[in-house]
Write a structure and sequence with these properties.
It is built from 12 helices and 16 strands. The strands form 3 sheets. Strands 3, 5, 6, 7, 8, 15 and 16 form a 7-stranded mixed sheet that branches. A 6-stranded parallel sheet has the order 11-10-9-12-13-14, with helices on both faces. Strands 2-1-4 form a 3-stranded antiparallel sheet, with no helix packed on it. The radius of gyration is 19 Å and the shape is globular. Helix 3 packs across helix 4. By secondary structure, it is an alpha/beta fold. The two termini are about 15 Å apart.
Length: about 325
């Protein structure tokens, strides 16, 4: 089948032929109609997570899929041939920049009826990240205050909408051209990072969802009130993540060292730091589908590319200027 292959880390993906997916007892073979593009794809290509998430070359990138079920494994109970579905396949089993993929049924959900395939493919990774950060990890409550960094990005657009649905007061950062736009998404306070320093403008926040890392994460810790929490999705990974992943002790120690400075700064501020590496969940996608079809959440697609322009789609995402998501369409 046609696919985009990474033949070695840090090399561009190339169009080529990949083996047909193997369909296990609990797998669903999906004919791919559209695939979302994420910065995570570039990071996987470049080997940034290979210590705890190695892929054997050649491998296919792609973490978001929308398509049609063409075959089901013998133990599959929730899906049938012809179903329109979407998913973020679990780590180790990615590969949506291709014609077909086998997805574990637990990672899969029925596509929201109100969305096209392209719109649906834009949803899973970013919406699950927002859900797991704000609902699962932060347990965000009505009346609390949350800062969402990079509100015009893929995760940010969903996090703003979800946080407002949960009853929080939402602040976000964005560039000048997107100030009004993220306000329309639901942000109560919008910081134009080209003109303002969010650290001086914001105080006593309950939660921060940080997608930037580095100096932005360090400053994010300082806008929290005592007992608040910064959830980082750009790193650094922390010891809890290492334990959750069941990594070997040397890798857990390495993660402790990588995050030591951040965790120490958090302790000194009387706040917490937690690293989030989102996981696949068809059950959570089902809840997200309900919110989408009821109009609470809406996809934001910046641009779609045909399959033969997948490298250009990934390059746009790497450029960091996308407003919402970038999607590759197969049909």
């Amino acid at each position: 089948m046609k696919a985009y292959l990474v033949k070695r880390y840090k090399s561009p993906m190339e169009a080529g032929d990949a083996p047909e997916p193997t369909v296990g007892d609990h797998d669903v073979l999906v004919e791919i109609h559209a695939a979302g593009v994420n910065l995570l794809d570039a990071k996987i290509r470049d080997g940034e997570f290979k210590l705890f998430l190695p892929y054997k070359s050649p491998f296919v990138l792609g973490h978001d899929v929308a398509g049609v079920v063409r075959r089901v494994g013998s133990a599959v109970t929730h899906f049938a041939v012809g179903d329109e579905v979407y998913a973020r396949p679990r780590d180790g089993h990615i590969g949506t920049f291709a014609e077909r993929i086998a997805v574990h049924e637990d990672d899969l959900a029925i596509k929201p009826a109100s969305l096209s395939m392209a719109d649906a493919a834009s949803v899973p990774l970013v919406a699950l990240t927002a859900w797991q950060a704000l609902v699962e990890r932060a347990n965000l409550q009505p009346g609390q205050k949350v800062l969402i960094q990079a509100g015009s990005g893929g995760v940010g657009t969903y996090a703003i909408q979800l946080a407002k649905h949960l009853g929080a007061t939402v602040a976000t950062t964005t560039g000048t051209s997107n100030v009004d736009w993220v306000g329309d998404l639901g942000a109560d306070v919008v910081i134009d990072y080209r003109k303002q320093d969010f650290e001086t403008a914001l105080h006593d926040y309950d939660e921060v969802l940080d997608s930037q890392g580095g100096d932005t994460l360090a400053k994010s810790l300082r806008v929290l009130k005592p007992g608040g929490m910064a959830i980082g999705i750009a790193g650094p990974p922390d010891p809890d993540f290492g334990r959750e992943q069941g990594l070997a002790l040397p890798l857990q120690l390495a993660m402790a060292l990588l995050s030591f400075k951040t965790r120490r700064a958090a302790r000194r501020q009387g706040v917490r730091y937690s690293f989030l590496f989102m996981r696949a969940s068809g059950a959570q996608l089902g809840e997200i589908s309900t919110l989408i079809d009821s109009g609470v959440l809406g996809p934001i697609v910046d641009r779609t590319y045909p399959f033969d322009q997948a490298p250009q789609a990934l390059a746009q995402v790497e450029g960091g200027r996308s407003k919402g998501k970038v999607v590759i369409t197969m049909v």
